[in-house]
Amino acid sequence: MENAGKVGLFGAAGAIGQSIAGALGAAGRDYRVIGRSHSALQAAFSQDPRAEIATWNPDEPASIAAAARGLQTAVYLVGVPYNQFETHPPLMEKTLAGLRAAGVERLILIGTVYPYGHARSNPVTETHPREPHTFKGRMRLAQENLVLDAHGRDGLSTLVLRLPDFYGPRIERSFLNGVFEGAARGTRAQMIGPIDVPHEFVFVPDVGPVVETLTRTPQAYGRWLHLAGAGTITQREVAAKAYALAGREPRLMVVGKPMLRVLGLFNPILREMVEMNYLMSEPFVLDDSALQGLIGPIRKTSYEEGIRLAFEAAKDALKVAA
């Protein structure tokens, strides 16, 4: 592995971005955090002297190039609202043009399992066909094809790193966050069902060190790779463990696909979750032996420990709020 240059995190203020920033800081590396909102970046990163804060407008090529100037590696974490997935490909197209103009050498897209569609067998390796049957899967596939097609052009090397669903302390966008808050408060937790199917989650703090390593592993590029979680668990088991830590019996309200359809009449985000419900009702487990073959063993937090840390964070947040 080499000593890599400066890394820029596009869409840095989210959970995965903060995990990667933490790993870069821990490795003694300077990095740049890039987002639309200066105040959000300031709130998340102003404590780290290694973090350089920059804003961008992803609709303006000159703004993208300015945000990317001087970077060796760009990590792309830009999210869009769940009901606006059609914006993923054009955003990526503009970003790639800006990265090329700035002379960036490497790009890592943090991707999802959406482009695969249904799992034909488990665990899923990188040889699994990419045949999405959902609109969001097709948009993610178009996005990552742009990234993969850019590899080897204009001095740019590219990589897609796929993650399963994620969870962790104060990760609001996790399906499991409501469980930890409900356990800490002693209230009912809302969950997207079914909740008895084995499911894979990656613990967010485990992601950063992997990405930091990949930024200085040139032989990893020109493909997609998987980062898997610490095995599988059911959502009901997560709830049981979280509520047990609070000394309580689980109190759950499970919303299944039929109810999502009904609620979706009034809530566009819930409406968009209907087509992705197959990921809750069918096991989908990633195999990351290819990644481990490249960078060695990966530290993975056990569900036991991860649930405890997430629960304690929810409990601490209640104390602060009080």
UniProtKB/TrEMBL annotation:
One Pfam family in the UniProt entry: Epimerase
Record pathway: Bacterial outer membrane biogenesis; LPS O-antigen biosynthesis
Chain ranges of the NAD-dependent epimerase/dehydratase domain: 10-212
InterPro entries: Epimerase_deHydtase, NAD(P)-bd_dom_sf
SUPFAM superfamilies named in the record: NAD(P)-binding Rossmann-fold domains
Similarity section: Belongs to the NAD(P)-dependent epimerase/dehydratase family.
Protein name according to UniProt: Nucleoside-diphosphate-sugar epimerase
Organism of origin: Paraburkholderia phenazinium
